[in-house]
């Protein structure tokens, strides 16, 4: 039983009501509180709540499953003051849960001369609700230069500022980095290996864990 306390058609208990009516409303309120207003409809009735409801939690299931959402799991939202008028509304806190991959799993190991952007599918190492992956990157080149690096980005991103790069520092010495890389809905990120013209580089990616919406 969810969303049956101070919502449309489910008023709070009031002084003067018969005990059986009050008892039913209190049961509804307890169950609603335990389940955190779980459901796909806005329990505030579209923003009609005010200061008295500050702190209420809505476990918004809209995106849990199905074509109507993004399938990345439910969202936890808090009712709070959002403006000086004052105004009130739901704030999604952007909580994420981290899940370690054990044992650490190798997802890529290449030696190449200038590998351009390529998809790396992490569905075997994450979950179907993963938002981002924590990866350990090893990059090496026999002749590092300004244009030599490995790079990573969310699949489909083209803005250069959103690209993360790992630069080898010395010839033949492997450099290791740990990055959090956003994933698309198919748990795919993109990688590239930029090397100097006459030498080949090495790039390795191990998956340490992944993030889901908490």
Helicity range of the residues?
A: under 10%
Q: Could you say which structural class the secondary elements and strand pairing correspond to? A: mainly beta
Using only C-alpha atoms, the radius of gyration works out to 25 Å
Q: Give unreliable regions as ranges.
A: none
Number of helices: 1
Tally the structural domains. Answer: 2
The CATH topology of the largest domain turns out to be Jelly Rolls
> Which range does the strand content fall in?
35-45%
Element string (H = helix, E = strand):
HEEEEEEEEEEE
Main sheet? 4 strands, antiparallel
Q: If classified by CATH, what would the architecture of the largest domain be?
A: Sandwich
Average pLDDT figure: 90
The count of DSSP E runs of length 2 or more, i.e. the number of strands, is: 11
Kindly report the spatial arrangement of strands forming the biggest sheet.
4-11-6-9
Q: What general outline do the C-alpha atoms trace?
A: elongated
């Amino acid at each position: 039983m969810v969303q049956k306390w101070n919502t449309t058609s489910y008023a709070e208990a009031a002084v003067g009501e018969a005990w059986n009516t009050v008892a039913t409303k209190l049961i509804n309120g307890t169950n609603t509180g335990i389940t955190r207003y779980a459901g796909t409809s806005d329990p505030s009735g579209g923003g009609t709540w005010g200061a008295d409801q500050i702190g209420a939690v809505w476990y918004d299931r809209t995106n849990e499953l199905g074509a109507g959402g993004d399938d990345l799991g439910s969202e936890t939202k808090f009712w709070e003051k959002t403006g000086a008028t004052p105004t009130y509304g739901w704030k999604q806190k952007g909580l994420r849960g981290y899940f370690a991959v054990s044992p650490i799993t190798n997802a890529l190991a290449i030696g190449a001369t200038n590998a351009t952007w390529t998809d790396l599918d992490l569905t075997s190492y994450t979950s179907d609700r993963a938002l981002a992956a924590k990866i350990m990157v090893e990059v090496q080149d026999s002749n590092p230069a300004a244009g030599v690096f490995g790079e990573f980005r969310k699949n489909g991103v083209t803005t250069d500022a959103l690209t993360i790069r790992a630069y080898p520092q010395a010839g033949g010495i492997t450099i290791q980095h740990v990055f959090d890389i956003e994933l698309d809905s198919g748990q795919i990120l993109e990688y590239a290996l930029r090397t100097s013209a006459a030498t080949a580089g090495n790039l390795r990616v191990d998956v340490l864990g992944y993030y889901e919406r908490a």
